[in-house]
Write a structure and sequence with these properties.
alpha/beta; six-stranded mixed sheet; 7 helices
């Protein structure tokens, strides 16, 4: 069963005098356990496509189906809850809450979903161990390196066992060593938890690791290669 289906999706912006179509008739599907990279030049529609998949933006036309749920049929309040439960996000800028510790950042969404404290702690400890930060749970973001912060962001994205992780340029602010460590962790989580990862990236290091490469140009899919 596909965890994600994108059917003839368009996104057109009318913010300027000339309408801009950022996503132009994209049709794709993803199975559980994929490790896929969406690539293409700046302005090709990569980030817009990820925002549509994650329900952060709405398509002008077409349909996006996540785990059998049509996003277009969800009310705004339902969409917020749906994102928390079914989609994990990893952003270029980490987006950790500065006043919270690593453990508290990871447990944040579980807390919003009213997980019991013991289950929340167990899952948080598991994830800290998985991303190699078992001894940094009490550290705040300012006390962590950029690579460590991004690993916390990955753990947070995984916390509620979503259908897939959307990673928008996750290595853009990292050096080579931190990038390799982060990608090693993501590949292991992909294997061990059969977690689906969908990257938007310019980074050749991410592309080399991907087992599927989807290339966009002017909002269209021009190639879709598996390896």
């Amino acid at each position: 069963m596909n965890v994600l289906e994108i059917n003839e999706v368009y996104k057109t912006y009318h913010d300027t005098e000339v309408a801009v179509t950022a996503v132009n008739g994209v049709t794709l599907s993803f199975e559980r356990g994929e490790f896929a990279a969406v690539v293409g030049p700046s302005g090709s529609g990569k980030t817009t496509l990820l925002n549509l998949i994650g329900g952060l933006d709405q398509p002008t036309d077409g349909e996006i189906i996540v785990a059998g749920h049509r996003l277009s049929e969800l009310r705004p309040s339902e969409l917020i809850d749906f994102r928390m439960e079914h989609v994990g996000f990893v952003f270029q800028s980490y987006n950790l809450i500065p006043v919270l510790t690593a453990s508290e950042n990871i447990g944040f969404i579980m807390n919003l979903q009213h997980w019991p404290a013991d289950k929340r702690k167990k899952r948080t400890d598991e994830l800290l161990h998985s991303v190699g930060l078992a001894d940094r749970g009490n550290s705040r973001p300012s006390q962590l390196s950029g690579g460590q912060q991004q690993r916390v962001a990955v753990a947070r994205a995984l916390a509620t066992r979503p259908e897939f992780i959307l990673a928008d340029e996750p290595t853009a602010n990292l050096d080579s060593k931190s990038t390799d460590t982060l990608l090693d962790i993501m590949e292991k989580l992909n294997r061990d938890e059969e977690m689906t990862f969908i990257f938007s990236t310019h980074d050749s290091r991410v592309v080399r690791r991907a087992r599927r490469i989807i290339t966009l140009e002017d909002g269209r899919v021009v190639s879709d290669e598996r390896r």
